[in-house]
């Protein structure tokens, strides 16, 4: 086969692989609608997901981007960035609170109002957007007034095109944490549509005019192609890492692995695993509203576990460590004022703490048992074993035990041993073995 033909076949194979990896988008005159689905707290990972979706929509000249949202709220910083990304988008962004029973609470209210169009499914709610501190606590009065006034100004700007009634309702979600149903929000003009599902929303959007940064734009959805944009693997991972239960598990595994490495240096697996778990946990702790005072109790807990291994107290320090771990975890994640969706599961904390205590206690028991086992190395390990006399022993000769030859002496009052006889090692004198004929040991 000629080189040219080989190169040609290789080119065809490479082109086929590229087509499998990156499907070519078919050219069509039908409008394109991209759909993103976000379910959970508003976090940096959700912000990046929305930002990526808007970028894809602009690159592909999509007719509109529908952002399906179900959130109990979240931090103000990613919320502000999401609002900015939506308002600066050259493609209309429609925020759709769904499915039935979903909510756009707290920061989700502001994100919903930021959409060029807003919709809710029946039996959904919106509101309760009063600000709280980084640890979920009520803000100091002066700071609370500042943050509330800032948020009220933001929602006024976003809702002013919807009328005075909508502006008043938007402000009340900030001022008095008011929450309303989909029907109440629609009647007040706070949202544009109530849609029973995505298909219903797309139908209602046809011919609807929105105001973009570039000016008015009429959305055309008739015959549109709908394409879902799923969260990437990294975005999904970062979302998982903002789950307080996952963060707690990573934290306990990471610290325990580091303690194992410190107590038995020389390996690398435990230290490597611990470093990874702690790094992932630190990301979650940086996003979640935690009370850092709880870290003090966690550190004390693991110190107690380590001390009980190094200086055994028959489990007393381990029991104290379990109690300290439970208290520290609850202080860290479940301080008063923290929203329920950002709290760690109490049964999980108790069960993991008890399991960790049992694990530490097991190590302690193994350590105590090892201390009671007599040293059995060198000559001591040979006593009680049998061998073969390689020379006559009367009273000194050579015995083979296992693969080793030893100078041996007869046991006092033992009969001489002939070469080839089996012998029993009964003791040692210096570096010599003491033996007797195995026939004398019935």
Helices and strands in order:
Elements: H1 3-21, E1 32-39, H2 44-59, E2 64-70, H3 76-88, E3 93-97, E4 103-105, H4 107-114, E5 117-120, E6 125-127, H5 141-159, H6 164-175, E7 179-181, H7 182-187, E8 193-194, H8 198-205, E9 209-212, E10 215-218, E11 225-228, H9 233-240, H10 244-263, H11 269-287, H12 294-310, H13 316-333, H14 346-372, E12 386-389, E13 396-401, E14 404-410, E15 422-429, E16 432-437
Parallel strand pairs: 1-2, 1-11, 2-3, 3-5, 4-6, 5-8, 14-16
Antiparallel strand pairs: 6-7, 9-10, 12-13, 12-15, 13-14, 15-16
Helix pairs in contact: 2-3, 2-9, 3-4, 5-6, 10-11, 10-14, 12-13, 12-14, 13-14
What distinguishing features does this structure have?
alpha/beta, 442 residues, six-stranded parallel beta sheet, 2-enoyl-CoA Hydratase, Chain A, domain 1, OB fold (Dihydrolipoamide Acetyltransferase, E2P)
3D structure, described in words:
The protein is α/β, with parallel strands linked by helices. The protein has 3 domains: 207 residues, 2-enoyl-CoA Hydratase, Chain A, domain 1 (Alpha-Beta Complex); 132 residues, no CATH class; 63 residues, OB fold (Dihydrolipoamide Acetyltransferase, E2P) (Beta Barrel), CATH 2.40.50. It contains 14 helices and 16 strands. Helix 13 packs antiparallel against helix 14. The longest helix has 27 residues. The relative contact order is 0.08.
